[in-house]
Specification:
heterodimer; A: alpha+beta; D-Amino Acid Oxidase, Chain A, domain 2; Arc Repressor Mutant, subunit A; 3 domains; eight-stranded mixed beta sheet; 23 strands; globular; B: 298 residues; alpha/beta; seven-stranded mixed beta sheet; five-stranded parallel beta sheet; 21 strands; elongated
């Protein structure tokens, strides 16, 4: 039976960062993922915002972690070679009631230690965002807010964890657990292993994973949210992240100018839905709120809509939980249950929190070989001409364009596959193919063919996104 | 830096026609680049007839029409360079061209953009539901079936009754598949009358006007769509394993973004506006090729 020091269950953003932060110590780590790839559960979709830390009560772990995480994000993204846009955010107010909310957020943010916060008059805000709707009364400017591509961040953390010795096991679902000789015996659909410690980052299944060994505590209520994406350089695209809370109840709107130059609009809140299925009412609401603050938007420039699922934590009595649920039901067993916003912002902090505590429990030394740096897949599109030419000179595949919309080359797709992409969406999450205005219509066939060749399977076995999503039914035998 | 007098981007019907016409008008330094492995643009996958009436006086299939266009091009000295992508163009008339193993800047005097059009994606429609496999644009389906010999599914719903949608309805039927319906939100088919007759009526494929798809179902693979009858508001769910979209064509002139109106730039064929039939895109390109060829011959 295989023995590890730590088994991390679930390779979403949290699991990948937990493994990465644990790999700073001399520990044998295994990262278990039920699906075919990392970041395919709740990490597949979110608002992509790196929050400054104004939204949480002073003194809470959420507030403290968010502010610290935000301050460290430039360094983190540099280490992991992931682009970060520090575009800043404007929280908008169109009336006296929201003005009061902004003043409270300002006070809260300042108390939390958020740098650079400024309450702007309407005129100042219009100077920063001329396309904003009339009627603005004030805005709270947070210069440290930013945005990243969440897939790239999670995948980068995983690659870095593996580089530092963690083992990633995909297609490995945890079925049962028990304690045995002071260790945790974990039964998976691919065999049994033991670990001295368990970190449960199983996303929507995190409550059930903990209940394999412990009585129920936190319950997860899956909550879907709808998003709409507009094309790059679309009309009325703001330069800053815009946050708007309507007077009536319901989730507010966030408009995010993404790292790639798209505009992401979200989101809504629909409880008890497990499926990643967008709702008509949700999409309509997102669009309606968006034009309320950005009347110049043209929805003929929409290129995609989708739903995210968030794990809303609830107490057994049904009341909702506002804080991060970091459970420690037994020695050397840690659970992150129901981590939603600002989970992306705090992913590394949460990993590091658990890593520090487990290091004590396991009496682990520093890993002298740990390197925080991970090299991303070279991106010819962002290089000046001479550098791009040199890259093509070194590897001819950098000259062959596969995705025309996003200017992604054959070399990048092959490297994505070499680094673990096994599906068309796996390639997309790593190198951005199919994310442009044609949404993969012109590159999907080439990518399925490349995956088939690299994986040594017929094209009919290549999936869009996980088992059962084969794109082609069959290939007729060639004459 | 390599240079040429006339750079034509896109070797479909329009680009080939423009190149041949420019040569005949006296321009002797023409480079025709195309991103595809073979020239012809979308034509090689159009196995159906219906091309070339205006140009060659008889009804041809896409590959036949391409062959005749290439014969015409072959009589000129225009150079054809396939598998080459135009990455960018600058105001000082330098194009950056990328192909396997080579990235180069090329100076030109005039550029004719003949990059055709692209299909509108279903992503633009904000349809509720999941995002499973089994959804293809009509052009994607056409390429996979006609050129790659692939079997895409058995129970087909086609959203949009433009010409491509109608042609693919027939194609799937001829492949032995069941086309459940072609859905059209307008009161009548979007495609040409001859295609409605030849592709839909001749095969008794139901065309359901004033209907659209409101929701997509299926976890891994699409398993159905919820359809709304726009006049009554009534909805029903249709089981299917494949959804094909023919939502219209959008001129693709992304490479020239911000340069429209430059006097050294012409747009020819579907990248300037979408033509109903390829012959008229080719005819427009021939006119432009002649005009530019004359200017560049002196």
């Amino acid at each position: 039976m295989e023995r590890f020091d730590v088994a991390v269950i679930g390779a979403g953003l949290l699991g990948c960062f937990a493994a990465r932060e644990l790999s700073r110590r001399k520990l044998d780590i295994v990262l278990l993922e039920a699906r075919e790839d990392v970041c395919t559960g709740i990490s597949r979709a979110n608002t992509a915002v790196i929050y400054p830390g104004c939204d949480h009560k002073p003194g809470t772990l959420k507030a403290e972690m968010t502010v610290r995480a935000n301050a460290g994000f430039d360094r983190l993204c540099e280490e992991l070679n992931v682009p970060l846009s520090r575009c800043g955010s404007l929280m908008l107010s169109f009336g006296p009631r929201a003005d009061a909310v902004l003043r409270e957020k300002l006070r809260q943010g300042q108390e939390n230690g958020v740098p650079g916060l400024r309450l702007l008059s309407a005129n100042e805000a219009y100077r920063m965002e001329p396309a904003l709707a009339p009627g603005l009364s004030s805005a709270l400017f947070s210069p440290t807010a930013g945005t990243v591509n969440p897939w790239q961040l999670g995948i980068a953390a995983c690659e870095n964890a593996v580089r530092n010795g963690a083992q990633l096991r995909r297609n490995t679902r945890v079925l049962a657990m028990r304690t045995e000789d002071g260790s945790y015996r974990i039964e998976t659909d691919r065999g049994v292993l033991t670990a001295r410690a368990v970190v449960n980052c199983a996303g929507l299944a995190a409550d059930r994973v903990q209940e394999l060994l412990f009585p129920p505590s936190v319950r997860i209520v899956p909550t879907a949210g709808d998003y709409v994406v507009l094309d790059q350089n679309c009309a009325g695209r703001p330069a800053h992240i815009l946050e708007y809370e309507p007077e009536k109840r319901g989730k507010g709107l966030t408009a995010v100018p993404t790292v790639k130059g798209n505009l992401l609009l979200g989101t809504t809140e629909r409880e008890n839905t497990l499926a990643y299925a967008a709702a008509e009412c949700g999409l309509d609401r997102v669009k309606a709120l968006a034009v309320r603050i950005l009347p110049g938007l043209d929805f003929s420039e929409v290129i995609r809509s989708f739903a995210a699922v968030r794990p809303n934590p609830r107490s057994p009595d049904g009341s909702s939980i506002q804080s991060f649920c970091i459970e420690h039901p037994a020695e050397r067993f840690w659970s992150l249950i129901g981590i939603k916003t600002p989970g992306l912002t705090c992913a590394r902090e949460l990993g590091s929190y658990i890593s520090d505590r487990l290091a004590t429990e396991l009496d682990a030394e520093q890993n002298p070989l740990f390197t925080p740096e991970r090299r991303g897949i070279p991106k010819p599109h962002s290089l000046p001409y001479e550098e791009r030419k040199a890259l093509v000179g070194r590897d001819p595949d950098y000259g062959e364009i596969v995705c025309f919309c996003e200017d992604v080359t054959r070399a990048e797709v092959l490297e994505a596959i070499r680094r673990g992409a096994v599906t068309v969406d796996g390639v997309k999450r790593r190198v951005g193919t199919g994310m442009g205005c044609c949404q993969g219509a012109r590159c999907e066939q080439k990518i399925t063919a490349m995956l088939a060749e690299a994986l040594g399977v017929p094209e009919s076995a290549v999936c869009k996104d996980g088992p059962g999503s084969e794109i082609v039914r069959a290939e007729h035998e060639r004459l | 830096m390599r240079g040429c007098k006339l750079l034509i981007v896109g070797a479909g019907a329009a680009g080939i026609s423009a190149a041949a016409a420019a040569w005949d008008a006296g321009c002797r330094d023409i480079l025709l680049v195309d991103r595809g492995i073979r020239p012809g643009g979308i034509l090689p996958q159009c196995l159906h007839e219906g091309f070339g009436m205006a140009d060659f006086g008889r009804e041809l299939t896409g590959p036949e029409y391409t062959a005749l266009l290439l014969t015409r091009l072959g009589r000129t000295g225009a150079a054809l360079q396939p598998e080459t992508e135009l990455l960018s163009v600058s105001k000082d008339r330098i194009a950056v061209l990328s192909r396997r193993g080579s990235l180069e800047q090329l100076h030109f005097e005039h550029m004719i953009l003949a990059t055709g059009c692209r299909e509108k994606s279903i992503g633009a429609l904000c349809i509720a539901g999941t995002r499973p496999a089994g959804i293809f644009t009509a052009g994607q389906a056409q390429e996979r079936i006609n050129l790659r010999n692939q079997d895409l599914g058995d129970e087909i719903v086609i959203l949009g009754s433009g010409d491509l949608g109608l042609i693919m309805a027939r194609r799937f039927t001829l492949e032995g598949k069941h086309v459940i319906a072609v859905l059209e939100q307008e009161a009548q088919a979007g495609g040409m009358a001859r295609n409605v007759r030849r592709c839909i009526k001749a095969y008794s494929i139901p065309l359901r006007c004033r209907t659209t798809v409101r929701e997509i179902h299926g976890e891994g693979r699409v398993c159905g769509v919820t359809v709304e009858h726009l006049d009554s508001g009534a909805r029903e769910t249709i089981s299917c394993d494949t959804l094909v979209t023919a939502l219209g064509l959008i001129p693709d002139r992304e490479a020239a973004r911000g340069l429209e109106g430059s006097e050294w730039l012409s747009l020819a064929g579907n990248c300037s506006r979408v033509h109903d039939i390829v012959d008229s895109a080719a005819a427009e390109a021939t006119r432009i090729g002649t005009l530019i060829g004359r200017q560049l011959s002196v």
